[in-house]
Write a structure and sequence with these properties.
elongated, mainly alpha, 740 residues
Length: 740
């Protein structure tokens, strides 16, 4: 709640009938400012302070479901066929409050599902339709998502009926898939298993712009070279899913747009054939909406008044719906039969000459110079009226770019090949961020293994784990070698799209075996010891690597006077080169690792911010980050065996020395010219330790210092070891979806 414009309290005090209910000074009893508004924070006073919020988002307190809730168990109760029937029926059950184009909601539902899944980007695996995040800001109010609030509201009766047995995330994607089936496409399959979030995702960086659809120049080092777009972004402008439909920065030029399309879809894990199939398949059905002045639309859902009840973009143009709907500003359908899956897109594109015209909303679009009346699509309300079809600049790119044109002509001449290519690309688009097939659920999950699913062979589960550990312990490998190899294998895991991790042991394959952060020579030496052990016992190398890390931690704990067994669950498998798409794994390469005190090079963002990003992707909390880093420092896992941050005299012992020495006021901390820090004894003046920013932030940041002090306490030594082990196991098992 914020103060009203005249400075008066916005609370009606007449509601308080008893004098004692108003505080003594007669002031408003409601706390104002940062306490109740979303744009204020107590930390606004210190804008450069390290923000740990991304490690705490989606806390259980935001989730109305009980901690015992299992979506997988609820899915087992779901009547899938009944749900699919209800969604099918919805397609042609036009509602007066938001009527369907041509009496069919297919185009709207497809756009909703597409814009949910289409935010995925391969650089960090974030975005996508796997969390139902389209319900929340900023996505629910993106300019590219105008009127998708209506699509989700149309689905509400179905969500209400099936309740917790189907998530919003699954229902949104299912609606788009059913829409295609309803209009004649044989889809490739569908999997349930997406779990909803209950709060906006604050870890996703959508760009630095402070206004919607700002010119895209700021996203590129050179706008003429789309590959210079800022990482990890994929869309060309703030508030768009892909590219500007009118052209680069709204200026039509299909050849230039083709370059942006290629880069954008590449960053969303799509090749040229998939890009053509998706572009054509997406525009085979439905239409654009721009029959009115877009500037007259009301505020977006997050800005609209409470009386709008979560809906936005109120349209004052006549009925404001049907033929008068305004979304993108372009106006028209692409094909003659926009509620039917056919080859109409390619036939329309190649059988006509096109010229630039303006839509009623003033947007640039391409329309045919000449076209037979019977080839025009009919009006969405009055089927006796026909309108010109349209093409976006991105559609025209499919005709003028030589590579896209060749693929388009191939599909135009082979409708079955086009249909299969689109069905597979749609499945990939809508399932790319779900992770391996073990995360899939339902009767329509395809049997075929696809390389983008990162398939892994099934691992052996029944073997003598203790015997393997003895063999590893006697192998001559050091604690550091065992722990760092296991860590490097597991740290690639991204909870964003459930890729990477220790399962599959892809650390021994290209490109991972050559990554600088994995210290290739050292890695090769360790693998040459572990692989014969795996072969001797007939188990996976993946299990052997993780077991070696556990052995190293147990030895380090013993060196510190603690006997502990690190929990281990066998069953990891080994991937092969044939199962591995090397190119798609390149974005998983670590460019920094605060846990091993390593930076590939200097970056604009600070090392501690890079550590937070990696920590969030691995699914760790701030306390888990703290205990894990402190333990790894004293074990001696730094890249290149550097001593920065190794605040102990007994390297290789799992002690709480890192925190004890970090919080010891007997030391002074001074920066050096090379970006490092010396830690001097105040008593002798001698340099005792050296450190990096990543080390010292655990003493300088007030929140992280509170955790460091906790683990430095004399009564928390055992707690430190146990918490370290628990966090270590969490990292090692992060990709074990077969256990979840």
């Amino acid at each position: 709640m914020s103060n009203s414009k005249d400075g008066k309290c916005p609370v009606d005090h007449s509601q308080f009938t008893k004098k004692e209910e108003i505080n003594e000074a007669g002031k408003c009893p409601v706390m104002h400012g940062g306490n109740t508004t979303s744009d204020k924070s107590v930390m606004d006073w210190w804008p450069n302070a390290l923000n740990l919020d991304i490690l705490h988002q989606h806390d259980t307190k935001t989730n109305p479901l009980k901690s015992s809730f299992s979506y997988r168990e609820e899915l087992k109760k779901l009547d899938v066929e009944a749900l699919k029937k209800d969604v099918n029926n919805l397609m042609t059950d036009s509602q007066e409050w938001w009527p369907a184009d041509w009496g069919h909601y297919g185009g709207l539902m497809i756009r909703m599902a597409w814009h949910s899944a289409g935010t995925y980007r391969i650089a960090d695996g974030r975005g996508g339709g796997g969390t139902g995040n389209q319900r929340f800001a900023p996505l629910n109010s993106w300019p590219d998502n105008v009127n998708l609030d209506k699509a989700r509201r149309l689905l509400w009766p179905i969500k209400k009926k099936y309740g917790n047995k189907v998530s919003w995330a699954d229902l949104i994607i299912l609606a788009g898939t059913i829409a295609y089936e309803n209009m004649g496409l044989k889809t490739f399959g569908f999997a349930f298993g997406r779990e909803d979030i209950w709060h906006p995702e604050q870890d996703i960086y959508w760009g630095a712009e402070k206004e919607w659809l700002a010119p895209s120049d700021s996203r590129y080092g050179n706008l003429e070279n789309p590959s210079t777009m800022e990482n990890p972004l994929a869309a060309v402008q703030m508030g768009l899913i892909y590219v500007n439909p009118e052209g680069v920065n709204g200026v039509p030029n299909p050849l230039k747009t083709a370059e942006q399309v290629r880069e954008t879809f590449k960053r969303m894990a799509m090749n040229d054939e998939e890009t053509v199939a998706l572009t054509a398949g997406g525009h085979t059905v439905g239409k654009t909406h721009g029959n009115g002045d877009a500037n007259l639309l009301g505020p977006d859902p997050e800005t609209a008044g409470v009386e709008e009840q979560g809906l936005g973009w109120k349209n004052p143009n006549k009925t404001g719906k049907g033929r008068y709907t305004v979304t993108s500003g372009l106006e028209g359908a692409w094909t003659t039969n926009p509620t039917k899956w056919d080859n109409g897109f390619f036939e329309m594109l190649f059988n006509h000459e096109w010229e630039l015209r303006k839509s009623p909303a003033g947007a640039w679009q391409w329309e045919p110079k000449t076209i037979k009346e019977e080839d025009k699509p009919v009006d969405v309300e009055d089927f006796s009226i026909r309108h010109n079809p349209i093409m976006t600049d991105a559609d025209m790119a499919m005709k003028v770019d030589p590579t896209y044109k060749e693929i388009s002509l191939k599909y135009m001449n082979d409708f079955d090949a086009f249909s299969d290519a689109f069905a597979r690309a749609w499945f990939k688009l809508t399932h790319r961020d779900m992770g391996p097939k073990s995360c899939y659920f339902g009767p329509d999950v395809p049997q075929e293994d696809l390389i983008w699913q990162d398939p892994i062979n099934t691992g052996k589960t029944a073997y003598d784990v203790a015997a393997v550990k003895v063999k590893i312990a006697n192998s001559g490998l050091s604690i550091s070698e065992m722990v760092t190899t296991a860590w490097d294998s597991a740290r690639t895991f991204r909870g964003s799209d459930k890729r990477g991790g220790a399962n599959g042991a892809r650390i021994r394959l290209s490109p991972q075996k050559n990554w600088e952060g994995n210290e290739p020579e050292k890695l090769l030496r360790v693998l040459s010891v572990l692989e014969p052990i795996a072969k001797e016992f007939g188990i996976s190398i993946a299990d052997t690597i993780v077991l070696a890390g556990n052995v190293g931690i147990e030895q380090a704990a013993k060196n510190a006077g603690t006997t502990i067994t690190v929990p281990f669950t066998p069953g990891r498998g080994d991937a092969t080169n044939e199962m591995t798409d090397s190119e798609s794994f390149e974005p998983l390469e670590p460019l920094a690792d605060g846990y091993r005190n390593w930076l590939k090079k200097e970056y604009i963002v600070s090392p501690e911010e890079l550590m937070l990003d990696r920590t969030q992707l691995m699914g760790l909390t701030a306390p888990e980050m703290t205990v894990l880093l402190g333990g790894m420092r004293v074990i001696g896992t730094n890249y290149g065996d550097t001593k920065h941050g190794v605040f102990t005299d007994t390297i290789g012992a799992l002690s709480n020395d890192f925190f004890v020495n970090l919080t010891d006021m007997g030391y002074s901390w001074e920066p050096t010219k090379n970006g490092l820090y010396n830690i001097r004894s105040k008593k002798t003046g001698a340099i005792k330790f050296t450190a990096t920013r990543t080390d010292l932030v655990f003493g300088s940041n007030s929140v992280l210092r509170s955790y460091s002090e906790f683990y430095a306490q004399d009564d928390n030594i055992e707690r430190f070891v146990q918490d370290f082990v628990n966090t270590w196991v969490k990292v090692m098992n992060a990709d074990r979806f077969d256990l979840k």
